[in-house]
Amino acid sequence: MFELGVTEAGCLAHARRKFHELWVNHDSRVAEDTLKFFIQLYEVEREVRELDPHERRRIRQAKARPVAHRLYAWLMAQRHKVPDGTATARAIDYSLGRWAALTRYLDDGDLPADNNWVENQIRPIALGRSNWLFAGSLRAGQRAAAVMSLVHSARLNGHDPYAYLRDVLERLPTHPARRIEELLPHHWQLDTATT
Fold it and tell me: How many alpha carbons lie under 13 Å from residue 112 in its C-beta half-sphere?
């Protein structure tokens, strides 16, 4: 995908989680000290949450970038002290191996520091996937996935999923195929003439 022009943006929450688990499960001093850097980075994110992208980027550059530099130096120093194959080494390697992606948000005020919002949106699908193993067939599973995508896309675009699906299904038989994009959730407008 990256060769097609997709730019990877890492998730600070995933990197942080590795150290949190290490601290909780092993009472790791390295993890505890590393978490203090993540706390500082998230304090900046709380400060810039409601700002426009330009201002968010400016404050990130001024406040979060120096913390990220110190975190990187800290991780590099700790990595030289930790034996390969340990849980601490794996946590550090996870962050260092993704460092460019993890810090990409510092240069782009439109990017979030983590993907928690997206994960919360897809959680119902992830939790239900074991139930959907028994959709009947591969084709039935693909159809269910398409319907769930439409329902969740409608919800994300501020529509009532029932009203969206009802309207689209009623309009579909007579709607011109060349204008089918109008019925996608991000373009859809309720046909008030029929309601």
Answer: 12
